[in-house]
Amino acid sequence: MTDSKDLEAEIHPLKNEDKKLQENPGKPANTGDGLKGLPRQPRVSRCRTVAFFLSLFFCLFVVFVVSFIIPCPDRPVSQGVWRTDYSAAVTYDFLATEDINRDRIQDVLFLYKNTNGSNSFNLSCTDEGFSSPCTFVAALSGANGSVLWERPAAQDGALVQCSVPQLQARRTSSACVLVGRPGSFVAVDLFTGETLWSHPSSFGRNASILSSLLQLPDVDADGAPDLLVLTQEEKEVGGYIYSGSTGHQIGHRGSLGVGGTAGSLLHVTRAGAHYILFPCAGSLCGCSVKGLHEKATGGGSPLKRDPLWEGMLNATAPGPLWRSPGAIHYLMNVPGKAGEDLLLVSSEACMLVDGQDLVPRWTFSAAQVSRKPILGHYKPDTLAVVIENGTGVDRQILFLDLSTGALLWNQALPGLPGDPPSASLPTADHRSAFFFWGLHELMGTNQTEPRDAQHSLYMFHPTLPGVLLELANISANIVAFQAVLLEPSRHAACVFLTGPTSPDTPGMVSVAKHKVRDLVPSGRVVRLAEGGPDSDQAVRDRFSRLRYRSEA
Ligand SMILES: *[C@@H]1O[C@H](CO)[C@@H](O)[C@H](O)[C@H]1NC(C)=O
Ligand SMILES: *[C@@H]1O[C@H](CO)[C@@H](O)[C@H](O)[C@H]1NC(C)=O
Ligand SMILES: *[C@@H]1O[C@H](CO)[C@@H](O)[C@H](O)[C@H]1NC(C)=O
Ligand SMILES: *[C@@H]1O[C@H](CO)[C@@H](O)[C@H](O)[C@H]1NC(C)=O
Ligand SMILES: *[C@@H]1O[C@H](CO)[C@@H](O)[C@H](O)[C@H]1NC(C)=O
Ligand SMILES: *[C@@H]1O[C@H](CO)[C@@H](O)[C@H](O)[C@H]1NC(C)=O
Ligand SMILES: *[C@@H]1O[C@H](CO)[C@@H](O)[C@H](O)[C@H]1NC(C)=O
Ligand SMILES: *[C@@H]1O[C@H](CO)[C@@H](O)[C@H](O)[C@H]1NC(C)=O
């Protein structure tokens, strides 16, 4: 008896469930008395059929609604090329990308100086308390170059740091903070362009700004990261800490004791302690941010010290941490095996130093580097550092393996004064595409007058080591250049900011975007070595087929 019941349960498991439900004495309402004598099965199956068709109908209805009635969110069409011009203006070396209008296409931020803003917004300098002409910060749509917002934000040029988190009425937002000359400190909402706060800056009259705006962890416990600016006043480096959310100075100016030069860096040791590193008279000088904060406020600081670093530093005064061969020109944080390491470029050598104990890992001394190095992947998943040896006609591009300092690739590529820095973009094959400015034809000829020379942009990919592809010639003065992915994992684009060479002679300022894939078909193939694909078209096809990936 039990056997046959079980067998039936196996064949009709649901039926059995139904029975159990109906036999449940806890729910007598289900079984009407008048139905007792009738066979129950047909009614149950009818119910089931109705339920089945109802749910099927409901599903179809949902599919119908989703696919036909609710419109798809339209993917904004991104134009392959756009250009926005400002006449009688001046621009500065600043380009940033952020998704400002939240259309999932990165938009472009830049600065220009003019009497009035563009026609789309009739803002004038006096609206924000500046005299005319003044510096505007502007956001252009990455999709078509239309102006999203602009705002007068400084009198003359500025140091800008965008994407500084802000706390506005308990909602986190983001801002661009501008330290203007002379003496203004302004934050502009990244998404709307509204001025969030504006103060005169508290730097000394003759102070020259040494660092960019360095972003510190929250030291004043208001929930937003804070900012640090280093200045050089009277042969001494001074540090100013500002609240990132209000722009008010935290404490007083803290002295770093020694003189330094531009190129400071905020370094976080493996213990999570923050140190400011800056080049000073043939050495690398350092100072703990905790010490600076305590000195500025006369109180405690939530930051940490690293015992190892405190041992290396003179406890009484900030000063030399490490003696370098020659004056340090560039200082960079680079990813290391455990935490960040330091890449130092001095007048004598380029070297990698351990980020914790400052022990040199490798030194490459056969080069005179006059440009800040860039990083990229030459071999899959292996970082390489790209340096430029020499300038002008004697310039060479060198790729060094970041972990060993071994030379991977080198190529003579004469440069022109005013060439923008090189750039790299990760590609889907775990290598990088590289973008170099120069003039391949200059080899063996006289150096052209920089003013009427064309700057040529070359693209290089490690899978085609014997080939450069000349993507574009630009005769205007290029103030800033970026190779970016405006849409995640879609196409790579070049953004050019061109304008007058001197800030005293206003002229045409343009921001232009070109899709890399559109530039490739008209590119000129430059063969550096024998081998590689036979036809130029095959080379262009290889470059066209490159897929990029967004940096994590
Ligand atoms: C700037 O704006 C003011 C007032 O809106 C106008 O009178 C002036 O002609 C404008 N100047 C330029 C150069 O467009
Ligand atoms: C432009 O200026 C006029 C007059 O000053 C004002 O009425 C108008 O609202 C302004 N437009 C914008 C977009 O700010
Ligand atoms: C440019 O794109 C934005 C969205 O990114 C859109 O709102 C605007 O209408 C477009 N402008 C033009 C001139 O196509
Ligand atoms: C600023 O520098 C100039 C010359 O470099 C000097 O004459 C002047 O006294 C300095 N001012 C201050 C406030 O230090
Ligand atoms: C540490 O700094 C003090 C004051 O600047 C100086 O007198 C002393 O010589 C320094 N010590 C070392 C080891 O550099
Ligand atoms: C760097 O340039 C110098 C001078 O032009 C040259 O002597 C040296 O060999 C170059 N270094 C490398 C690694 O090619
Ligand atoms: C380079 O320029 C100098 C003078 O400017 C000229 O005498 C010389 O012939 C030029 N050389 C070449 C290769 O054009
Ligand atoms: C750049 O200019 C040179 C000579 O002026 C020309 O041969 C080359 O084709 C140009 N390249 C591109 C990409 O237009």
From TrEMBL:
Pfam family name, one: Beta-prop_FAM234A_B
Keyword Glycoprotein in record: yes
Subcellular location, record wording: Membrane
Region (Disordered): 1-38
Membrane topology: Single-pass type II membrane protein
Domain FAM234A/B beta-propeller: 82-549
GO cellular component, one term: cell surface
Organism per entry: Ailuropoda melanoleuca (Giant panda)
Superkingdom of source: Eukaryota
Keywords tagged on the record: Glycoprotein, Membrane, Signal-anchor, Transmembrane, Transmembrane helix
Biased composition (Basic and acidic residues): 1-22
Keyword Protein transport: no
Protein name: Protein FAM234A
